């Protein structure tokens, strides 16, 4: 079998010398290229090769190593992921997500540079984990690195950075409208040197994995605080703490995402030492706001990669000689080609929006990029789902089944419109920010109208569109 | 009356010290900023001030100076445009469109830099003409500069660069499907030292203006050439040439766009000297392809400006205290705010696509940026029309009438999906280009599947989703 | 010239014996057919012939008889409309809009039957007026017939029914959010035997026509009434009353709709006798609610006709042998055919919605059909605009210009999303009505869940999706 | 627990006497009501009660009785379905799908009447099977009833009508573009008194159920026939025939639809007696065309019910007091209410389209209703998916998980755009049919233009939009 990508020699990247296809580094949009170091470009090509040649072929192996039966699936740890992790470290692909201007622990790339890499990671189910760049660990590691005490870092950040354990972020709750985080209501009170937690969480992604050892947990510690943004705290809860029970695993359009999974977890008098607090009591909002920004960009860029993969599948099908309805290749049906083109446009526009947001973060921090991140958060999943829907339709039955990755990608993509805040919340916040300029625009337009009237006078012009039709005297005067 | 923008001191750009509003140079997307020179940034602010303070207030004056009655409207030359041109030259705003790396005659900006300026020019009906950056003169000047003989340049380019005359580009024809340029069929044959032209053209934009002196005209000179891209020539036809008649002016959704206008022109044995040929016989396609690229970017960026203006109007209305249906400002109705947010996202994504395309042109030439230009050509008008539609709906009756510029902007925006090639043509070309990679993707996916099978063997895995249900013996085997 | 439609012999309705085309009566959706009388079916065919053979060819004549120049255009009364009215009366096509179960003055058809006819009237600019079925006269006549005193009927209804005068309905105002009718604020107070009116109205459609003699006017007579729906009155204002001035005419996307037009009218101490009140003081809302229902159905069905006409134009273009981009008829481009098909589906669905609403009105009255009317009011213009947009795109430049009726139809169609209440108002009311069932559905779903739990017990089933993962002891229990 | 629906007394259908909610018979669109017999109306109410009170609560029981593990899931036969079948027969709800004017074996309802019932069946996963109205048995029974020999009927139709066995329809194949049925290529040749079959099929829905005993199979019996519509035959293959293997079961967005399922089946020298042919060799297309029409209407009406259920869930969530983001019920957020309203409109329009199609079938047969069926086939799934997407978004995480039926409904709804021919095939056929009128419309419009010119002459009018701008002499002539 000939090898399509050769990691050692990125110059000969192509299958059988095909010229249409260029390597990842050559496909960076021109407007972003100058901001990507030579080292990052080289790494990007290695990421592409690693994903296309090693991770994507491994995706089905991983699926099969998980096994069958819900109890098995959530205690499995596929061997292949460890083999890929080993390989990734050899290739220097490890912890690329930690941005260089904020963290010394990472691989030394900017958010923009990592964003480009994340696009390729998004093409494989397991490439992110293989390079220790998988959510929710990435955001959790950022929390530890930014806000953790030395003790917390030693205990949790170190093994996370080494890929030895995994972690979960427990925020969403089943009994409240979690899209408004002030509603979070897991009970937390201090009892001596401990905090005691009671209540339940769900959509605790990653909690299914037996290697998931630590839950970063948002709880309501001060429900009576007049400032609703000071009622919450974030506290560390080791997975093995007595009183913690994973009640059940949630499915996503029929997929269980094992062993990672999405847990529904109950807390029954769960006690953790007070030293497990992050940043301090009442500072929960501070923690989650610091956490979410870059993570949304990672999701967005992986989604761009997912959209590209969908388009690749679409194009493969359009050129499949076995699939010729009405005597023509799918690509000879104009409707299909127009969908391909629209997909190309929409993906390219969405990618630029994400890269621009990544640069905003790089230039300062995630808070500074609030608008840009929200824009990407809303546009990208919408784009991804459109492209996937077209690809699925081109495949027909194969598109909705296990024979292509499209249905699974769609299910995952659909959740992107919900996780980390549903579209509606981001849109209303974006809308409110835009609206702040409304009064200025109202004044400006008024000013321009007045200036126009003054100009009219200076030119000796009377307003022309006044046609007085004096019906009483049955005649029109211009 | 207090002045909102002070051209001399760009630091004090704001109305009444409002902080939400920043000047143009500060709103350049971060990913593009580094490619904009200090001089261009400064000019950009001056463009914004000139447009907002002088051109937009002058728009209604211009409309009123055109007068009434079709004969008047197409012989008018409003005084205000000459006053604005004088002012623009004082401010150094002249011929900014001619890109520095290709033409020495221009103001020395890149396509990216001019693109940013064009956004602001797009907010006023007359700002482009006031700065001698109006279509179709811009593209026509590029044709002269790139392909003209010295004699042609002296006679036509010089007065065009000086803003003394105007020009038209005659391509589209009423009796063929002009979306496919090979159909162009104005007859052209050589008779001694002259070419003789017969037939008709329409959508000859700008031909209504009495100052329009020269028609750059595409004709079929060699209908029997086996190469359909060598059958056409481009030739110069002075407007006053005997046999040329503007049969009528076309309207756009009820607007006549006087005095500029869109002409339907007939050619009845029109004779021009053979020296009027551009580049040479049979090279028409070469000329039009070289012409159209940057022009599409100009259109696109002006459309971005138009979309921004629509959003400004939308926000102004949303904050108009006289317009409170059901006791609430429009911005207090969630539906409106979501539309504002979606508009913001869509405009920002579209702008990045255009700027990226401009950079592609800057990096080499328009041909190199074929894909990027086509992407912008399709996405931007679609975005503009969506934003305009929302703004119009927020205004109700005022939105469709002469009381806002929105209806006129919409009519103009709608033509953008047709001029310079309809959406469908660009989509099919984009689709075909993408499709070239189809075979590669098909092979790659096959390769990945085979590799996966090999990996499965090496891990001792049998394919798991095979459930053999042997109905004959009524039992299932996993 | 052969005649395509022969009114006398509806059996031979077709051009040149073409078999694909059937007459109007044969195209009534099967689900509605049984509700249409033989007489109505026959009239329907006559309407179709009259519109296709006499009105549509007359449309350009009408446009040309209006002339040029704003003063001329609003004093013109094209002769052709009187000739068509004479012809329509000969054919028995007069006042078909007045429904038989509510008014004795009409032609004796149901709303459903007239709805079917209105579809054909909607294909010509002037067919509605030619048959005395034009808005706003239709709604105004209904007001007179339902609520008028005998004196009011004699003076205004009689000449309106005879097509001798025209009328306007003055509701919308420029200075308030008229989408919420409680905001209407034209001042009205009683002074002896007169009411005195002050303020302004706009979008007074039809007021431009010199034959428009009476304004049915909504005004605020009791601004302090605690019931906001009792503050308004509707009063008759003859057009020639001193103090009434048509300040100017409004345009719609550049069209002035002359001579009908849309007036901006000022009231300066306008005095009318108290006997001019309709129904009584404070009963304005009652009047306008009784007026609007059927009118919305008329608009909707005319819009269906407009959509059909757009599709006819689209198909004509798709088969125009002069218009073959890339060597193929437009109908050979799959993208075009798919758009044709989608248009067909959307029009057919929208028509059924309107006909169902018409039947609801027929079965009782417009109030009973509130939901159905609102549904049609929102869906139909949206459908019309989509179909028109596709047709325009197929025509390219001809589609936006005066060479097809499409641009004018689009402009008119766009206003349909605004007039008689913008989409948003109808949607919010529909939404609120639907939401009344929310509590019931919540209870029902809860009840079903509880029942399910009881059934589970009776079948000895434990809930299956509970996977308890006891991380403390590192094991999973199913 | 109080009972919301009492089957015995349909007058007291409501939960707690709520007045907003009315029973099914009262919700029949007015335009369809007259075509529904009293008996059908009464049955409709019983269907509604049976579904809401007995089937929907049983849905989770059914899911749990299937069990876990792929081998188990496809050998399970949940007891509850037999209990429900018994109950349905008691209530007289059995085989309602067989239309009265075509089959004597059914319950004696028209397609329109059954369509109304199917809407309610579509609200439960198992109600269709419980009433012996489930696909693909329904279509298969129609095939037997229409085309079967007495022997075939005795052997297969009888137990199918009695609900004792189930069946599958094997058409789609993995290795060809099955959207074009002429591509079907399962090999079939005659060998003595037997046909021998070789090849594979997939998306053989229902084949997973151990009670599925007979496969109606389309095969290519005469590949060289010059008429591509005569190359196929339909033949009966008992599930237990040697050589038949269910290779694997396909999933739909992660759902396996067990035990019904979607099989991938291989044929290895499968021999069936020649008496197993349906209708005769080469008549396969005849059989499948006769089969598909009504089935598409059933699917469509069940999808309408699914959409109604989605809207019910949406409204329930919008009124859930535990889910109040930003301090307000979801229904107090205007964006949500507008989505509710749009859903209401779209569902109502789509339902009318289906009912109209059902009436067309009733009036003659499915072939006569080709256009109407195709319209419903395309519009309904599109509508369903839009409504479901909005409901899912309102639920957030619960919407994509097993906690609501929405995700499963979505997955199933998505396949509706593919099964029985993808959208694109129906659109192209619809488009082609519409296009047949194109030439007529082209001629008509030409005729109208000529007539208009004649009228212009008779009125003494010259064409007005000709503005001759004679540039040579620099003046305009009107």
Walkthrough of the structure:
Four copies of one chain form a homotetramer. With 478 residues, chain A is of the alpha+beta class. Chain A folds into four domains: 10-134, Butyryl-Coa Dehydrogenase, subunit A, domain 1 (Orthogonal Bundle); 167-278, Butyryl-CoA Dehydrogenase, subunit A, domain 2 (Beta Barrel), CATH 2.40.110.10; 286-434, Butyryl-CoA Dehydrogenase, subunit A, domain 3; 446-477, no CATH class. Helix content of chain A is 47%, strand content 14%. Chain A is globular. The N and C termini of chain A lie far apart (85 Å).
The whole-number mean of residue pLDDT values of chain A reads 91
Could you say which structural class the secondary elements and strand pairing of chain A correspond to? alpha+beta
Identify the overall geometry of chain A: globular
Q: What portion of residues of chain A is helical?
A: 40-55%
Strand content of chain A: 5-15%
Q: Biggest interface, which chains? A: A-B, 99 and 97 residues
Report low-confidence residues of chain A grouped into runs of 5 or more.
Answer: 1-20
Q: The CATH topology of the largest domain in chain A, please?
A: Butyryl-CoA Dehydrogenase, subunit A, domain 3
The level 1 CATH classification of the largest domain in chain A is: Mainly Alpha
CATH architecture of the largest domain in chain A: Up-down Bundle
**If you compute it from the alpha carbons, what radius of gyration of chain A comes out, rounded to the nearest whole angstrom?**
27 Å
Report the biggest beta sheet of chain A as strand number plus sense, adding barrel if it closes.
4 strands, mixed
Strand order of the largest sheet of chain A: 1-4-5-8
Distance between the termini of chain A: 85 Å
Give me the strand/helix succession of chain A. Answer: HHHHHHHHEEEEEEEEHHHHHHHEE
SS elements, strand count of chain A:
10
The number of helical segments of chain A is 15
Number of domains of chain A: 4
Keywords (chains A, B, C, D): FAD, Flavoprotein, Oxidoreductase
GO molecular function, one term (chains A, B, C, D): acyl-CoA dehydrogenase activity
Family (chains A, B, C, D): Belongs to the acyl-CoA dehydrogenase family.
Domain Acyl-CoA oxidase/dehydrogenase middle (chains A, B, C, D): 168-270
């Amino acid at each position: 079998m000939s090898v399509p990508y050769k990691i050692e020699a990125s110059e000969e990247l192509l299958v059988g010398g095909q010229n249409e296809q260029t390597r990842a580094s050559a496909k960076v949009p021109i407007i972003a290229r100058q901001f990507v170091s030579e080292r990052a470009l080289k790494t990007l090509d290695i990421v592409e090769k690693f994903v296309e040649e090693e991770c994507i072929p491994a995706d089905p192996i991983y699926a099969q190593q998980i096994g069958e039966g819900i109890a098995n699936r959530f205690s499995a740890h596929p061997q292949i992921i460890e083999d890929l992790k080993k390989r990734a470290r050899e290739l220097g692909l490890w912890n690329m997500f930690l941005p260089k201007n904020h963290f010394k622990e990472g691989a030394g790339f900017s958010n923009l540079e990592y964003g480009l890499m994340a696009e390729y990671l998004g093409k494989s189910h397991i490439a992110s984990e293989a390079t220790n760049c998988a959510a929710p660990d990435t955001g959790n590691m950022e929390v530890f690195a930014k806000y953790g005490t030395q003790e917390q870092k030693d205990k949790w950040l170190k093994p996370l950075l080494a890929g030895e354990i995994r972690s979960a972020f427990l925020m969403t709750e089943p009994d409240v409208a979690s899209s408004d985080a002030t509603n979070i209501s897991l009970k937390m009170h201090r009892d001596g040197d401990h905090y005691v937690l009671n209540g339940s969480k769900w959509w605790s992604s990653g909690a299914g994995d037996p290697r998931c050892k630590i839950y970063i947990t948002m709880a309501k510690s001060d429900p009576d605080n007049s400032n609703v943004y000071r009622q919450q705290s974030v506290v560390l809860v080791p997975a093995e703490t007595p009183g913690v029970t994973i009640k059940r695993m949630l499915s996503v359009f029929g997929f269980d995402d094992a062993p990672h999974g999405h847990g529904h977890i109950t807390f029954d008098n769960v006690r953790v030492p007070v030293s497990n607090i992050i940043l301090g009591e009442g500072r929960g909002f501070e923690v989650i706001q610091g956490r979410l920004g870059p993570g949304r960009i990672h999701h967005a860029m992986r989604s761009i990669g997912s959209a590209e993969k969908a388009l690749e599948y679409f194009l493969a099908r359009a050129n499949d000689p076995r699939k010729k309805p009405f005597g023509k290749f799918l690509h000879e049906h104009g409707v299909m080609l127009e969908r391909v083109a629209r997909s190309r446009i929409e993906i390219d526009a969405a990618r630029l929006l994400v890269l621009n947001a990544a640069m905003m973060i790089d230039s300062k921090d995630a808070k500074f990029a609030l608008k840009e991140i929200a824009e990407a958060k809303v546009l990208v999943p919408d784009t991804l789902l459109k492209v996937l829907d077209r690809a699925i339709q081109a495949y027909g039955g194969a598109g909705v089944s296990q024979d292509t990755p499209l249905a699974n990608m769609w299910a995952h993509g659909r959740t992107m419109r919900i996780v980390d805040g549903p579209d509606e919340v981001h849109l209303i916040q974006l809308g409110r920010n835009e609206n702040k300029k409304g009064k200025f625009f109202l004044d400006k337009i008024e000013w321009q109208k007045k200036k126009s009237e003054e100009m009219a006078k200076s030119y000796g012009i009377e307003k022309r569109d006044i046609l007085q039709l004096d019906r009483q005297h049955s005649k029109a005067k211009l």
